[in-house]
From TrEMBL:
<protein>
    <recommendedName>
        <fullName>DUF7350 domain-containing protein</fullName>
    </recommendedName>
</protein>
<feature type="domain" description="DUF7350">
    <location>
        <begin position="230"/>
        <end position="352"/>
    </location>
</feature>
<dbReference type="Pfam" id="PF24041">
    <property type="entry name" value="DUF7350"/>
</dbReference>
<dbReference type="InterPro" id="IPR055774">
    <property type="entry name" value="DUF7350"/>
</dbReference>
<dbReference type="InterPro" id="IPR038482">
    <property type="entry name" value="Tp34-type_sf"/>
</dbReference>
């Protein structure tokens, strides 16, 4: 008897009370109705259940590297402005598909504003098409994903459509990533393969502040922000707000970034795994000797091969004794897997003394 037939015969069981890997009908229960930690902190935390993933393939499309991976259908949380909504697993959901997207030349992960969608066909006929949400996972980092309905087991074609971007781009990224591209994958859906994806319950660790380590994903970048020591310019300091890390820098000669004067930028990242935190609204105020030299300026969301995804603007200068205040008026407009949904939403202003 195949595992899926055994599951149909046994029905859905309760989760085991002990930590560790799950199997059989406990496994199906875990992803259909996963436990959620009680009294979650307003911060990154270890979820009750973690899940693995498998890969359908990796390819290139124009300037993009694209990988298509899969796991169980699962709950996730979407951001709409300052509101967070829960997307539950529906009865007919078959699979959670994830597209990872990066610059094929540099390996830089690309959180694009124009969006990604996944179209699924069988024998040339459309089976499913959904927007793939920009999404953060403690194990996969930055990717695009959603739950999809399939028409039973068998062979399928997935088309990952990548829109061009209107984000600011600097350095060798200037003028790139403007055209739409499509990456195509052939895959066979087999529920035995799906049920072989590891699920693990964390037991007493669940709910504590921390993060599950990022996966090694067969050469697929996860979107880890550059090390602070590798970023150019003067480091003005690090502040934390809503459990996100903000490192502020100034490059005194901003010509490399297409600005007169200096270039002020912020690298925002998650704690623990230090994934880039994209799609925020960040403003900066700069004061010098009681005079405001920059008044709540919106920092541009920008892609750069050395700085990765960051927020930046041109300024006349940043001098010793200046005070920089950062505020976030739009939280990251990315969906989140369990463990990230309570963080990165309610930000307090951050002050840097130069």
């Amino acid at each position: 008897m195949k595992r899926r037939d055994a599951l149909k015969t046994l029905g859905i069981g309760a989760l085991a009370a002990t930590a560790g890997c799950l199997g059989g009908f406990e496994q199906q229960s875990a992803w259909r109705d996963p436990p959620l930690v009680d009294d979650r902190p307003d911060a990154v935390y270890l979820p009750a259940v973690t899940e693995g993933m498998k890969m359908y393939g990796k390819t290139t499309a124009g300037p993009y590297g694209v990988a298509l991976t899969y796991s169980y259908p699962h709950r996730f949380w979407t951001a709409a402005g300052s509101d967070l909504g829960k997307t539950v697993v529906e009865a007919d959901d078959s699979i959670h598909l994830m597209a990872s997207l990066w610059d094929a030349e540099t390996g830089t992960v690309l959180p694009l504003d124009a969006g990604v969608s996944i179209e699924i066909l069988r024998d040339g006929d459309l089976v499913s098409e959904e927007v793939a949400y920009p999404m953060l996972s403690q194990q996969m980092g930055m990717h695009y994903g959603s739950n999809y309905v399939l028409d039973g087991e068998g062979d399928y074609e997935a088309r990952v459509h990548v829109g061009g971007t209107s984000l600011s781009r600097t350095g060798s990224f200037a003028g790139r990533f403007e055209s739409a591209e499509t990456a195509t994958f052939e895959f066979a859906f087999d529920t035995d393969d799906l049920y072989d994806v590891e699920l693990r319950r964390l037991g007493d660790e669940a709910g504590s502040r921390g993060a599950v380590p990022a996966m090694e994903m067969m050469g697929v970048p996860t979107g880890k922000a550059p090390a602070v020591s590798d970023l150019p310019g003067r480091h003005l300091g690090r502040q934390t707000s809503a459990d996100a890390l903000f490192d502020a820098f100034v490059v005194d000669d901003g010509s490399r970034f297409g600005v007169d004067g200096a270039y002020l930028y912020v690298s925002a990242r998650t704690p623990h795994n230090e994934f880039v935190l994209p799609m925020m609204g960040v403003r900066a105020t700069l004061e010098r000797d009681g005079t405001t030299t920059l008044d709540g300026a919106r920092l541009a969301r920008t892609l750069d091969p050395d700085l990765s995804y960051h927020y930046g603007t041109g300024v006349e200068a940043v001098d010793s004794g200046d005070a920089l205040t950062l505020s976030v008026d739009v939280p990251p407009q990315v969906a989140r897997h369990d463990g990230y949904e309570t963080a990165f939403m309610a930000f307090e202003p951050m002050r840097f003394e130069v």
